[in-house]
## 1
Amino acid sequence: MPAPAQRARGTVRVELADIVRAHAPALLVNARLAGVQQRALRAIERCRTPALGGQISQCDHCGAARYVYHSCRNRHCPKCQTLAKERWLADRRAELLPVPYFHLVFTLAHELNALAQGNPRAIYTMLFAAASATLLEFGANPRWAGGEIAATLVLHTWGQTLTQHLHVHALVAGGALAPDARWISPRRGFLFPVKALSKVFRGKFLDALSDAFAKGELRFAGSTAALAEPAARGDFLAALRAKPWVVYAKHTLCGPEQVLDYLGRYVQRVAISNERLLGLEEGSVRFAWRDRAQGNRRKTMRLAADQFLERFLLHVLPQGFMRIRHYGLLANRHKRKRLAQARAALNASAPAPFPRESVATFCQRVLGIDIHRCPACRIGRLHLIGTLAPQRLCRARPP
């Protein structure tokens, strides 16, 4: 097994890939994992290793050779998200409007966690549908706006300790485009009332869940097996309707660049970053987390490695599931036309096109690294002299 990477000060740096290499084989034998979970583990294990192939470059000054291995590009790999995030944000620059923005969070009751484990695609789809329909309905209501809003929703399924915490972050432009092409600004910086949002969101989600129950679209097993009985499903829905649901709302910064920075905290994020991993010792993983209940206080948690991986795998999304979605003015079917109308109403010009960065340009701008400069002599330039073919994956058949 390759040694963990080293931190700048000489201490051992643990990465998620190290934990996967050491403990995923036993998990694959002892646990029933979905195909998408198995593929995520294999991708993370092989990311930036000779297994995926790569390129060989040579310095034109000192002759030193440098091997660079390919990334896995799996959306659950913590090493593959930085460039993806920057490119996604570059695409969003052309969609920003010169108005204040609001950040809202729609959270599902934790009683739905077990049902989501057996039916992730169905439950996540209902979450998106209920949150977006609630926002669009409030936006269209003349009492609050009276037009079409612009909203981007991002799904997160985790909390700080990798337990399930199903919620969507919504970034909503302050205001709406009226049917007569006027821009309607929110009253005194206020978007929508959160208590009313919470009730409507709860109602829409539970109506969809009740419909899915009636049509037999959900699977029940383990702790949800009792829901196979109609009476149990009725009690389950009644308990959820009696429980208050929470929608969080916050007014964000007004400038477009600040909005992008804010949005960048939530897009392309994985359940845990390598920076939060503190150690892998004697079959257990230590990682940092923040306790929101104690003023965002930083703490350390220790979990058995298999338990840590099981928690991580809870957040692997179904194959092809879109975790970032756009609504209202940003819906793909009429985005260009409606954004142009909104800018005209706001007397604003479209932002200048932002060219897509190459990897070299990105590394220079964000990391301050010239990837073409020789790391050995710091004088010469690296030139490609060959490629490395990826290694064939040999999958061990579990007993």
## 2
Amino acid sequence: MRIQRRLPILLWVAAALALVACGGVSSGTTSPTPAADVGSGQLQGAGATFPEPFYTRAFYAYNQKYGQVSVNYQAIGSGGGIQQFTKGTVDFGASDVPMTATEIAAAGGDSTLVQLPTIIGVAAIAYNMPSVSKLQLDGTTLANIFLGTVKKWNDPAIQSLNSGVNLPGTDITVVHRSDGSGTSFAFTDYLSKVSPDWQTKVGKGKSVSWPVGVGASGNQGVGQQVKTTEGSIGYVELAYVIQSQLQYASVKNQAGKYVLASLEGATAAAASLTGVSPTNFSITNAACDACYPITGFSWVMLYTSYSDEAKGKAVVNLFKWLVTDGQNDSKDLEYAPLPTAVQQLALTNLKTIKANGKTVLS
């Protein structure tokens, strides 16, 4: 099975996390490449849980290549990442939603920061019904489940989408994020596009007032809550769904096709949007046969000026690698690589950053 094929990689990533969190590899490991002037130092980052498995693997790989640079990344949610970046307590922040005009102003204004996309992630609709191996949902029904108007699994609205499936008459337990979350933004952005009721009563955002359900922190928290609660449903980043071997539903896209969360669906959705920027980034409910509808870019926020020259160089060169060569390992962890045009956007933004008054990339 596909899940079984992924497990060795994901177990390896989990082991690598301990090394990354401790600031890299020890002096007893194989000597990394020392020649290139990529800067140096231990970089501190915080934010989105959505891309954490990818970042863990990528930062570890970069440390293996350039031992003078290590990264301590704390996955505390997109809202927390923006807060820490605004306070200046990290070298970079991470969010699955670009900062708003208000957030940018609070952080010092447009001239003080740049935002760049790093990877494409997919939010799967995880559920826990051992007796139901295949489940189909459309946007309206999904919105009504999270609004609390569809309360039981054998509700006619769900049954009509799953002909021939024996759905249990048990209550639905909704699980949502309790922290400020880019995954929540992608999910609520999608629901706002497909359900006028959701748009009117709840809307979209990293944090919203959930009508029903129980909250959990991070993608891992929501995934664990769904896994241990029979009859539950939640939205979880695909990498965590695969890692935890959760069930996940097919979702009806704008073209009327039921599609499972997948890299192919994410790539198709990303290809549907031209001119990607921090103000033009939504790829939810994209219009194509292959498009998976709950998909989004993940972003990092960097300062335009770093007083520490070595650390500033390290930040810029790390993310130059991440958005180019570093994309190569994304598919193994259920992330879609950035399209070439979006990589170029990221590289252009990196060229605006200075370290000790000097431009790092020309």
